[in-house]
Amino acid sequence: MSGKTVCVHGLGYIGLSTATVLAHSDNQVYGYDTDESLLRELEHRTVSLDEPGMERLVVEAMDEGTLTPVRECRAADYHLLCVPTPVVDRRADLSAVTEAAETATSNLRPGDVVVLESTVPPGTTVKRVLPLLEADGPDEFGLVYAPETVLPGRILTEVRENDRLVGGVDAAATKAGVDLYESFVEGRLHTTDATTAEFAKLAQNTYRDVNIALANEFAKLTREHDVDPRRVIELGNTNPRVDIHTPGPGPGGHCVPVDPWFLCEGTSRETLIEYARQLNDEMVSYVCELVGERFEELADRRISVLGAAYKGGVADARNSPGIRLADELRDRYGAKVRLHDPHVSSPNMDWTIENGSVPEFVAGSDAIVVTTDHDEYRDLHPGPVREGMRTLVAVDTKDVLDASSWREVGFEVARI
After folding, report:
1. One of 4, 7, 73, 201 is an active-site residue; which one?
2. pLDDT on residue 1
3. Based on C-alpha coordinates, what's the Rg of the chain?
4. 201 tagged catalytic
5. Global pTM exceeds 0.85
6. Edge to edge, what strands does the sheet with 164-168 contain?
7. Residues 7, 73, 82, 255: which is the catalytic one?
8. What is the pLDDT of residues 79-99, one digit of tens each?
9. Which of 110, 190, 225, 386 is most buried per CB count within 10 Å?
10. What b/e string do you get for 272-303 counting C-beta neighbours within 10 Å, with b at 16 or more?
């Protein structure tokens, strides 16, 4: 054992993955969460997160005694705060961060270190968390900001392999952070101050959001000239200094649609970041227009949306463009909408997600709209899909269908 004890606050996607990797790296880990049902699942050796290899590694660590789910915060050398920071009215809701920091403070011993991994607006570590520790904590402690940069479906791999930013509030804290992350991170550790690390994390996802918005703007403009935006982007990217992303129904997930708003807090001027975020959010309405152009009206039309996950190959439906599209088609246009996804079971109470045969699912539909690039949709054959549909309309927002073969059997195919 390395002698490090770690209490991970929050056992969601990031917290449980990080706790598991830490526990398999000669650390003694306590996984603290207030969700009783989640803790009972773990105690029964069940993991509901759809992440390859997660359940096996969690069970192994628990059986070996290096990972222990707990209902009360435990004293530890390190407290990792891995709690959510949702956006409410375009501002970060830091209530979970504040609560986690207060819990850690009440269990802090001299020399212990608090590490904030949650994505937060710049200045949160120094202006929000530090005063809490100084007011109620011991005289000596460390405070570090070290954001995660992982992708669902690859979390366990990327927790180990990705480079990490380690930003302490002082040099001693930064060193303490490096000591912890060196125990399990194979990538490079980039040291800096806490606020710079916060800003850099937000810059990463904001870059992606703005780049996607540019691709979506290109898609709208090229339509006016009757050229293929993807071919334009492909040719544009032949320049070694150009890397334009792909157009689509707007990004989803827990990072890209959320983090850019954190950079807009505190400024009264209009920013490119805000415009890009709004443009990407409006892509769902643009897709509705693409569907609507195929009919005199959408009221009572049967629309089958293929894709509730925000990206292909995962069961994560957070901020899903497919679900938002289904909402708008139903609520704004009066369409009769159904949702299909081979990976997602039940993302919210508003929709029942079906995951059976696609040809059977779309029977009686006037149109299908592909909103997720699952391999299952990429491999669809148009013939069986065609047989049960009332009207042969396919709107492919992710460019996964072979448009020529679908048109050969009579489909009208539209793409972003």
Report:
1. 201
2. 42
3. 23
4. yes
5. yes
6. 67-70, 28-32, 5-9, 78-81, 113-116, 142-145, 164-168, 189-193
7. 255
8. 999 999 999 988 999 999 999
9. 386
10. ebbebbebbbebbebbbebbbebbeebeebbb
d(CA 49, CA 148): 17
Q: What's the count of helices (H) and strands (E) in the chain, helices before strands?
A: 18, 16
As given in the structure block, the two tokens for residue 388 are 């049960």
d(CA 293, CA 167): 51
Domains and CATH numbers, the chain: 5-193 (3.40.50.720), 283-415 (3.40.50.720)
**C-alpha pair distances (Å), 184 with each of 18, 22, 23, 160, 166:** 10, 6, 9, 6, 14
CA distance to 54, 153, 343, 353, per residue, from 51 (Å): 6, 5, 12, 20
Q: Three-state SS for 234?
A: helix
* Per-residue model confidence as pLDDT tens digits over 137-165: 999 999 999 999 888 888 999 999 999 99
**Chain-centre distance for alpha carbon 233:** 25
Q: Is 82 a catalytic residue?
A: no
Residue found by looking up tokens 């972003």 in the block: 416
**DSSP state, residue 29:** E
Q: How many CB atoms lie within 10 A of CB 132?
A: 17
